[in-house]
Amino acid sequence: MKACLTTCPICGSKAVGRVANKQFYCSDCFNEINVSKEDYHVYAVLEDGTLELRTLSEAKYLFQVAVTNS
Fold first, then answer.
1. Residue-number span of the structural domain to which 41 is assigned
2. How many domains does the chain divide into?
3. Domain assignment present for 8
4. Are strands 16-20 and 31-35 parallel, antiparallel or unpaired?
5. Is 10 inside any structural domain?
């Protein structure tokens, strides 16, 4: 069974697309989300294209800081 993610757990956006099985990308907050049975694994996509692992709470915090500063 394929995982389904319709809303970004970080920013709440519906701009989420499937990258691969159990892997999604939010084009509003630029994070890749891997879905497991118990948790989300969040990877920030950096400017050079590399992925940086973040906790869900860290990603939410950094998103709120970015929104506040923009």
1. 16-69
2. 1
3. no
4. unpaired
5. no
Whole-angstrom distance, CA of residue 9 vs CA of residue 63: 11
Residue 58 contacts residue 12 (beta carbons within 8 Å): no
pLDDT tens per residue across span 3-59 = 788 999 999 999 999 999 999 999 999 999 999 887 889 999 899 999 999 999 999
**pLDDT (0 to 100) of residue 2:** 64
pTM above 0.90, yes or no: no
Rounded (10°) CA dihedral 25, 31, 36, 41: 160
The answer to whether residue 5 sits within a structural domain is: no
Sequence letter at residue 20: A
DSSP state of 5: -
- How far from chain centre, in Å, is Cα 33? 4
On whether the CB atoms of residues 11 and 28 are closer than 8 A, the answer is: yes
